[in-house]
Amino acid sequence: QVQLVESGGGLVQPGESLRLSCSASAFADYYIIGWFRQAPGKEREVISCLSTRDGSEYVVESVKGRFTISRDNANNAVYLEMNSLKPEDTAKYSCAAVASIHSVEPMCRYAWNFGSWGQGTQVTVSS
Fold first, then answer.
1. Residue 75, SS3?
2. What is the C-alpha separation between 8 and 24, in angstroms, rounded?
3. Are 22 and 37 in contact (CB under 8 A)?
4. Residues 42 and 27 sit within 8 Å (Cβ to Cβ)
5. Each residue's pLDDT tens digit, 63-110
C-alpha cells in the first residue's frame, strides 16, 4: 500500500488561507487521492478528490470556490489549497488513496473506498 504523509495544518484566523500537502511514497498512474476531514463529535466528511490518471476532480459543494485540489505527479504530492477559512473548517484533515480506474466522484463519496490513509494534520480556524 502507498504510504501517505500530510503536512501544512495549523492555527489560522478566519479569512486566512492554508495549503495542505499529501506526500506519497509512490503514485501509480491510476490512483484516486482524496482529502477528508473530521471535526470532534462529527462524522468524517469528504472534501475533494483527484485522479492521478486523468486529473479529473471532485469537490464537495460546501467548500467549492474556497478549496482547490491540485497535484504534482513528479513529486508524488497532492495539495489542498484552502482559502477564506471559517471556524467551521476546523477539523483534522487526512488524505487517502485508492488504486482505481473508476470515475472520481462515485469513488470519492465514500471513505470506505480508500485503503491507504495518512495520519492527518490539524487545522484550527479561530480568532
1. helix
2. 15
3. no
4. no
5. 999 999 999 988 889 999 999 999 999 999 999 999 988 899 999 999
CB atoms within 10 A of CB 102: 14
118 CB burial (10 A radius; 0-12, 13-18, 19+): buried
Helix (H) or strand (E) segment spanning residue 10: strand 10-12
Work out the average pLDDT over 50-72. 93
Q: How far is CA 106 from each of CA 59, 74, 118, rounded to the nearest angstrom?
A: 12, 26, 21
Strand partners, 67: 64, 82
Sheet holding 18-24, edge to edge: 4-7, 18-24, 77-82, 67-72
| Cβ–Cβ under 8 Å, residues 29 and 52 | yes
The backbone torsions φ and ψ at residue 58, rounded to the nearest 5 degrees and listed phi first, read -140, 130
DSSP 14: T
